[in-house]
Amino acid sequence: MKKILFTHSYFYRFDPKQWDTKQPYPPLGTIYAAAVMREAGYDVSLFDTALIETPDKIIPVIEDQNPDYLVIYDDGFNYLTKMCLTNMRQAAFRMAALAKEKGITVITSSSDAADHYEKYIANGVDFVVIGEGEITLKELFKKLNDKETNFSEVDGLAYNENNKIIRTSIRQIVKELDSFPFPAWDLVDISSYKKIWMENRDYFSLNIATTRGCPFKCNWCAKPIYGNRYNSRSPQKVADEIEFLLNKYDVRHFWMCDDIFGLKPGWVKEFRDIVKAKKLKFNYKIQSRVDLLLQEDTIEALAESGAETVWVGAESGSQKILDAMDKGTKVEQIYEATKLLRKNGIRTAFFLQFGYLGEEKEDIEKTINMVLDLMPEEIGISVSYPLPGTKFYEKVKEQLKEKANWTDSDDLAMMYKGTFSPSFYRKLHRYVHKVYRRKQSLLNLKDLLFNPFNSNRKKLRSAISSLYYIPASLVDSVVLRKLESVK
């Protein structure tokens, strides 16, 4: 039986911002692929890089297992891997080189490899899987095991043949997601993840995918794996997997790591009904769109099935910028959805981005005012990031020189010319966080003064932090005004 060693190239320790949050998740896409190949009759194992210090740790694993193949299969459900961070690319190159030293065939599948397959092939990778990877892997391994060389018959592949890089036809995505087995959770050391979570917060969370793809056409958003198609697992299958994980690992919180959760009409309501019928008790967080949330009874069904936090791509408080992004949503919908979520006891979190083409000071102020008006429970801030395959990338690609990818997720480099200087946007990122925390601390201070018997340690800490955030935000505002004139 041929041995396949699966791994991936997202090292949390190489991304300081994410490592510091202490909320690591297993490589879901990787263990999906491993489960498919195990079902096909292969001997599979996993070298999980998420929590380790260096790619060189794979050396003793290779020596011990002596695999026939190394598959560097990144988790396409994790938005961090879609950012194509150079720290992770170099880690993938290193593992590929170490495997090649032992004569092992190396295969990669990731957003970055799909965008830059020539670079991966130049660094020792034999085959790059482009697009949804499970079926491509099955067909490729059959060719390899049968000692066939007509790889051009395998869709979704790039490889070197006679010093010429061949890219085959586009792989059609799988529509019946229930045909896939459950991810190979048994390959993951779940206890190592749980230990980090429990040492830093009072709960443990695992990741689940209920869908693949996104049908919307935001012109800055990369979709190199699943494209603009959208397919769902059945609510029954998802509930069955949740029930398994609840019983197996005593987990009570999940990140539904879909680009868009519950888009299919009636899906959320059916999911709620099954969860109730099974008497499953858990909470979860999702990513969604404000226009989708406003569909009839969607938010109520989310609340009744255990939804605790909804991250929405608010992006901007300026309708001009939302329209320029082809976002397809209205600022008014952000306000309406946030209020309705709060009314139903669901926390709201905003993804925000600054620096999109055409954004002026007035647009920035509208975004800040929207945040302070609505005060979501969490915010995530970035600057616009051009990824290959997007309309946004095509608009700015001539400006991308030596630096076309961030090093890690806190890099925040402006890789094209925005309205203001890169130093302005770096300071703006910090400033918005500070004014947000300032208002949060003042609201908690007010609550403590008027409701002292409802106080807790978290509220008290937040109220006291106003002593820092009030002067710090004022200082940053002065610096920002000076940076406005720097080009």
- Spatial order of the strands forming the largest sheet: 2-1-3-4-5-6-7
For the termini, the CA-CA separation is: 61 Å
CATH superfamily of the largest domain: tm_1862 like domain
The helix-and-strand class reads alpha/beta
CATH architecture of the largest domain: Alpha-Beta Horseshoe
Rg for CA atoms: 23 Å
Helix content: 40-55%
Put simply, the count of helices is 20
Average predicted confidence as pLDDT: 94
Biggest sheet details: 7 strands, mixed
Top CATH class of the largest domain: Alpha Beta
Number of strands: 15
The coarse overall form would be: globular
Strand content: 5-15%
| CATH topological fold name of the largest domain | pyruvate-formate lyase- activating enzyme
- The low-confidence runs, each spanning 5 or more residues with pLDDT under 50, are none
The total tally of domains equals 2
